[in-house]
Predict the 3D structure of the following.
Amino acid sequence: VSRTCGRTASAVQGRSATFDDECLTDVTHALAEPKPSSAFFRRSRCGSAATDVTVSHVAPTSYKGADLPTAHRPRRASAVTDVTVRHGSTDSCCGSIATDVTVCRAAPVRGRDVARRTSGATESGAFAPAARPSRRASAAADATLNRSGPGEDADGARDDAASSQAGAAKMAGAAQDVAFRASLVGEVAGMADEFVRRSVADRQAAHGRADSSAALGRVSEAVRKYDEPNTLRKESSDEPSHKPPDEQLIVATLNLQYFSSYPEERDVAARAILKKQLGKADIIAVQEGIAGRENELKAAGFDLVRCAGTSKLKDGGKAAQSVREMVYGDQAALKACPERLHDSLLCNQLYVRRESAWEVVASGVEQVSSKLNLDGGGGRCSGPLAIRSMVWAKVRKSKKTAFVMCTHISGGRFEDQYFVQKLARERHQQVEGCIAFFEDERPGSRSSGDVGILVGDFNAVAEYKQRGAMQSYYNFAIAKAAGVQADAEKLGLSSPEKIELAFEEYMLAPFTTLRSKGWSFAYRQEDVGPTSAFGHLVDHMSTTGNVRCKAAEVKHFTNQKSGAGQQDTDLVITDHNAVVAKFAL
């Protein structure tokens, strides 16, 4: 429907207008499955000109406005939707001109395509086939059905009569399915009715283009509501296609918490869980991994592509720091981590599944953090901001290319205490650095079809709500901190409201930056649930506009620390859950 919005008004100007293949709509894609045939027939009265609107799920009889020869017409029904708007009918009722809106679909019967029509619905919501459709409905059916000769007309009629009882029995068995689809048909038909009435009235009044965009927009919304995300579309082999099919890329993101929660004594069981939960991903993006510790994911069937801890930056500098440096020497955090790992490099990593059809053609690492120096005081240490990097991999399958980028943006409990010290700008700039790499610095020939997928721990939720997760955290851990109060006084933030507003800007910085650059997010917390053990979605995936997320799901590796209830996993591996997302490229 969305493809027809710009052309529908002009298409209805003539007395007979048929949408060509570029205007074929998806009105009845929800009826694409080979279920028992169903139809919707309704009448309403309009102004002074008779109008028939037929939305048929049958094989097309024309292509780009030209009639197809009978021998070249597809014999079987397809997923192509043929929409025909006709004017000039003479059927009238009580001095008004009647409008017939017929929505039908074809079902193959004994090798022939027969459009079954119904004139009413049963109490269960399923449609019962009419023994004798009206002459007007039959004429509409004859205009769209694929017949190859006069002899087959009679044969088709006999076949239709002979199988009507069997068709009714089958439809009773599929009553629930048909009832759902009938609600779509009813809503679309009603809106199509309104669209035609408005277009006819506008043409008579203004002798110009019909202003029907609002009505058609509601049709589009009705179809979208029923078609997404639960109704899968079936592509038709008969429909002209001008683009290659989509390729599926499955990406997972997982924060390993520098193995602080990893059950060393149950290593075999932990590896089995990693393989079960992540084994179908093509790429795994890891944050807070440990350089040199790769066996856990290798056992799950993945090979390391790039590790920030073992890579050098372009200027020769290091792209990762030790666990001790990254937690700013916090003793509580270090006690939770095995002592032998305190001086190991904490880093971002990318892994690829050995059996994946996606080929890694290039990879690298970029530093995205600045050389900002943090002032201490109020129980905080002083020193440079911890290094933040982005590791990337260029992957290819067929003619599709994607850049998967993994990062861990500054923030979290060790750095949130410094947020007043220009850290909002820092978080903006780190995301801008990732985007700039994809837009201006990615290697190889740059095609407009290249896909960018930014994955990682953003240390924040995407929305700052009153009494929401971030505000609760602010009130509990940030607002009254001595260092925060001292920084706010230096900058002249005189009221609690101004301090909280600055914190909100700091938390939302990555999201506002990505949206301003035209990137979108693959999922929300309402879609997948929390990823941190504290009930928040902090692990995100953002993409360029030429990629669609087909599905996203949380894989549990931790349990929630607040609230009582059933545990999500029997074996905690980290303090984050993973997210696995399927993208169509």
The two ends are 22 Å apart (CA to CA).
